Amino acid sequence: MLAYLQDKSVAWAHDARNGKDPVFKWLKLFLYDQEHPILRETPNPALPDGVSSERLVSDYLRQLYARIQKLIVSLRLSAEIGTDFWFSRPAGWSADNQEIFAKAVREAGFTSKENDNLFFLTEAEAAALYLMHHKDFEAVSAKPPKPQPPSSSLPHRIDQLTECPFVKPEDGRILVCDIGGGTTDVGAFHIQGTGPNAVYEPLGKSSGVNCGVAAMDAAVRQHVKKQPPHTFGLVRPLNEALLDMICDLKCQFDGTEEVPIPVDVTGLITVPPGVLRKSLNSTVVAIIELIMANIVPPRPLEPPVSIRQRLEHMVTLHHLDQYEAMSVSWGATFRGILGRAIPRLKFDASYGLQAAEEAIVRKGSISREQSSPHWFIRKDQAVEIEHQNELFLDIHYRAGDAPITIINLLQHAAEFPDANDGDSKRMPPLGFHLQGLNFSRLMRVGDEYCVQVRIVWKVTYSERHAIVKFTAQSENALLGEQEVPLIGYRLVA
Q: Of all residues in the chain, what percent are helix, strand and coil, respectively (each to 5)?
């Protein structure tokens, strides 16, 4: 929660709730959908003049950052080594939404210290990390299952759900369905390695949809709005009361209720249980469609566990028959995925980039020479997957030549190669076009040009191969993109 006070200062969390100024809730939704049904049903005030949705989130996170520094970082004896900050974001967000969120995080102060690092992951991954790290996970998973409720009921209470049995821990695979208030994320992962820094590989595509258990909130409010005015008082107190009561309602509702359910302290405002059941069915259908469309099912385990079997005893879902049973593992064990939880690769060779014709600027002249390689991957040194890196090359270009630049890709068996030992192996070169450049802005002497090219590279990995992707830019112009498969590597923790 966040509130802007009359003196333009910011109140945060309980201070915001206990004050008299307008309070903003569901802040993350403001970043990608200000017309989201939750925001329409929740009494959020209009944003103040000059305050964007990005700033709203940044102001909230700035308060969080200050408390982390005070209560956690400042108490560590090794605070000078830096802090790793992890933020989760819905898999359904667009690239623009993700960039806006990342900008809001940075403007809040995260990574303002030189040794700090910032990482982002999907909410399904974050849920997996939490589950593996939870101190009660082993005890919970070891409990015997309770008798199953009738197939006509909706989800039973949370204390019952946490005692569902798990498949044996050595399965090494996990299916995560993170159902939040406004969004739901699904993802499947293959755990590899043991210990506190085990790595994992996504199975299929992490995906999300704009729905969640806040559908119950909306259903309650829509129902109450249709009741006679004498049933309730002013709209604002009613909505605030519902916000206070809705959490208890969600935890206690098990779908077997037959009489209207009170949703306020007086007991005068009630909701038929059928309204709540109906509000959740569409969410469950959307979740199943996400899993069926985006998750690659692991090999069946013995005994097989199917999504259909898991859901039939938990929900009333009339559309379930159209989905085939799909075997999945609910194991993923106690092995962790703690720490950075990012797969890393070690390669059996070093790889470097070399401009075929480097531009050398000396005493007002530009000449071409053979450049020394830039070794961007070193043999036996770990490379983080999906981590973006960059390097710069000064390319020589002569007016009238073909508008293309060649960059050699080299492979060497040594960790610290000698550029002159003759043992470098040339791989197929990278070719990037220069047509989009504004040559009038480049350094020129006669008909000789110096073109500074920014090469952004990152390594991606799947179960079958590793690929390094190169993106070349100059003067904000995209020169091209190329992907090159690499061989001879191993996953490391």
A: 30, 30, 40
Domain end position, chosen among 115, 131, 146: 115
Length of the chain: 493
The tens digit of pLDDT for each residue in 14-41 reads 777 777 777 777 777 777 777 766 676 6
**d(C-alpha 272, C-alpha 38), whole Å:** 21
Q: At 369, which CATH number?
A: 2.60.34
Return the pLDDT at 41. 62
**Digit-coded pLDDT (tens) for 312-341:** 444 343 333 333 333 222 222 222 333 334
Q: What is the pLDDT of residues 39-57, one digit of tens each?
A: 766 666 777 788 888 888 9
Cis amide linkage into residue 303, ω under 30° from 0 = yes
SS3 string, 89-122, reads ECCCCCHHHHHHHHHHHHHCCCCCCCCCEEEEEE
CA dihedral (474, 345, 294, 163) in degrees, to 10, reads: -140
- Model confidence over 274-322: pLDDT tens digits? 888 887 777 777 877 777 776 644 444 434 445 445 444 443 433 333 3
Instruction: Note down the domain range covering 423.
Output: 344-492
Annotate 125-159 with DSSP letters as a single string. HHHHHHHHH-TTHHHHHHSPPPPPPPTT-----HH
The crossing angle, in degrees rounded to 10, of helices 214-225 and 235-252 is: 130
Q: CA separation (Å) from 394 to 337, 340, 456, 473, 477?
A: 41, 35, 15, 12, 15
Same domain, 57 and 143: no
Helices (H), 177-272: 214-225, 235-252
